[in-house]
Design a protein that fits this description.
Rossmann fold, 11 strands, binds NADP nicotinamide-adenine-dinucleotide phosphate
C-alpha cells in the first residue's frame, strides 16, 4: 500500500480562502476581525512564527497587530498589555507567543487573556470547554488535525485512535477532540510500555512527541491513518516529523508529510478561531 498524502498546504489554502470570504462579509457589516500577537524577547524561531501568523492574517484581510517587547519586559507590564488588549474592541483574538522569558509566569499570562479572545485555546476556560463539550476555542494544532481527517471524509465513530504525546497544547486536546467524535482513544506518553503493541491496534495514529522515528512502519496497522505533528531536524538539518515518512507511507492509507502537513494547518486554524471570535462579538452586539 502506498499512502495518500493529506496536503496541509492545499487544505490550508482552501480554508484560508473561506476565511477571506467570510472576513469580507463581516467587513461589509462594519466589523474587521483583529488579532494581536505579542512577542517578548528575540527567540529566532518565535520571530518566524509570529511573522507568519501576522502575514497570514493580512493575506486573509484580517486586521493584525504585532507587539514586540524586549526580553526584560516585566510580568506586570505584560499583564497590563494583555488587559489593554482584552478591552480593545478592535481585537478579537490575543496570542502571546510562547516560550516567554523565564522571569514571566506563562500560565499566569495565559489566564489573563479573556477566554472570549483566547484564540490559541490555551486558557483553562477553553480547556474546560473542550472537556465538557461547551462552546470555546479549540487549540489550533489538534483542531487542524481534525480538519485534516474531515477533509478525507474519515468517520471516527468506533475507530481506535492512539495519540502519542500528552501535552496541554497538542496531545491532551487532540485526544478529547477524537473522543468527542466517538473514537475510542488511547493516550501514550514517555512512561507508556510497549508503544508498538498499542499503535498496532490503531485505526488513527497522531504522533506529537518531538522525536524522530517515534513511529516506524512495523508499528502501524495496514490502512491506518497517520497524522504527524512533530517538528524535528534530521541529520542534514532539514525539517522532519516524528514519523518515518518513507516507511510508514508503505503501510498507512493516509499520511501527513512534514513539512507541508499539520504545520500550515495550525496557523490556518488561528485565523478560523479569530474570525469566529469576531463573528461572536458581532452577534452579541
Ligand atoms: P511536549 O510538550 O514536549 O510533549 C511531548 C510529549 O511526548 C510528552 O507528553 C511526552 O511524554 C511524550 N513523549 C516523549 N517521549 C516519548 C516516547 N519515547 N514515547 C511516547 N511519548 C513520548 O511537546 P508538544 O508541545 O506537545 O509538541 C510535540 C511536537 O509537536 C514537537 O515536535 C513540536 O515542535 C511539535 N508541534 C508542532 C506544531 C505544528 O504546528 N506542527 C505545533 C505544536 C507542536 P511525558 O508527558 O511523559 O513527558
Amino acid at each position: 500500500m502506498t499512502a495518500q498524502r493529506i496536503d496541509g498546504n492545499a487544505l490550508s489554502q482552501q480554508l484560508r480562502a473561506q476565511v477571506a470570504h467570510d472576513t469580507a462579509a463581516l467587513k461589509a457589516q462594519g466589523l474587521t476581525p483583529g488579532l494581536a500577537v505579542v512577542l517578548v524577547g528575540d527567540n529566532p524561531a518565535s520571530q518566524v512564527y509570529v511573522r507568519n501568523k501576522v502575514k497570514a492574517c493580512q493575506d486573509a484581510g484580517l486586521h493584525s497587530v504585532l507587539e514586540k517587547y524586549e526580553a526584560s519586559l516585566s510580568e506586570a507590564d505584560l499583564l497590563a498589555r494583555v488587559q489593554a488588549l482584552n478591552n480593545d474592541p478592535s481585537i478579537h483574538g490575543i496570542l502571546v507567543q510562547l516560550p516567554l522569558p523565564a522571569h514571566i509566569d506563562a500560565q499566569k499570562v495565559i489566564e489573563a487573556i479573556s477566554p472570549l479572545k483566547d484564540v490559541d485555546g490555551f486558557h483553562i476556560a477553553s480547556a474546560g470547554a473542550l472537556m465538557t463539550g461547551a462552546k470555546g476555542f479549540w487549540p489550533c494544532t489538534p483542531y487542524g488535525c481534525m480538519k485534516m481527517l474531515e477533509s478525507i471524509g474519515y468517520s471516527l465513530k468506533g475507530k481506535h485512535a492512539v495519540v502519542i504525546g500528552r501535552s496541554n497544547i497538542v496531545g491532551k486536546p487532540m485526544a478529547l477532540m477524537l473522543l468527542q467524535q466517538n473514537a475510542t482513544v488511547t493516550i501514550c506518553h514517555s512512561g507508556t510500555q510497549n508503544l508498538k503493541a498499542l499503535t498496532l491496534q490503531a485505526d488513527v495514529i497522531v504522533a506529537a512527541v518531538g522525536k524522530r522515528n517515534v513511529l516506524t512502519a512495523d508499528m502501524v496497522k495496514p490502512g491506518a491513518v497517520v497524522l504527524d505533528v512533530g517538528m524535528n531536524r534530521n541529520d542534514e538539518g532539514k525539517l522532519c516529523g516524528d514519523v518515518d515518512f518513507e516507511g510508514v507511507s508503505q503501510v498507512a492509507s493516509y499520511i501527513t508529510p512534514v513539512p507541508g502537513g499539520v504545520g500550515p494547518m495550525t496557523i490556518t486554524m488561528l485565523l478560523v478561531n479569530t474570525l469566529e471570535s469576531a463573528q461572536r462579538a458581532l452577534s452579541e452586539k
